[in-house]
Design brief:
mainly alpha; 5 helices
């Protein structure tokens, strides 16, 4: 069990993966928080309106934003760090397990 926990922690705290998740989060969400702050500070009404509307959409229940964020993060990981075979191998293993679980249900 300890080995599994260490593997999960090592996977999550991988600096390359964290960088890709941060970039993906900024692509999907972060820009709207920054835009809202800038719009509020400089009193730019249209910027506050656009970013506020997008943030309101994000907070609606069942928004697939997290799924999209992690899909972008995985794509960025593959593009930016193609030689990071350990992280990619873990992701491929997780994909195989998820795919087999779906096939068992069918």
């Amino acid at each position: 069990m300890r080995k599994t926990v260490l593997k999960i922690i090592r996977f999550i705290l991988n600096p390359r993966l964290l960088l890709c998740i941060l970039l993906a989060w900024f692509i999907t969400n972060g820009w709207s928080y920054v835009a809202l702050a800038i719009g509020s500070y400089f009193h730019i009404i249209w910027l506050m309106t656009v970013s506020g509307a997008y943030l309101a959409l994000l907070w609606i229940p069942f928004t697939p934003e997290k799924i999209i964020t992690f899909a972008i993060a995985i794509a960025l990981l593959q593009k930016l760090f193609p030689n990071d075979l350990e992280t990619l191998a873990v992701l491929k293993e997780l994909y195989k397990k998820a795919k087999s679980a779906v096939m068992k249900r069918k």
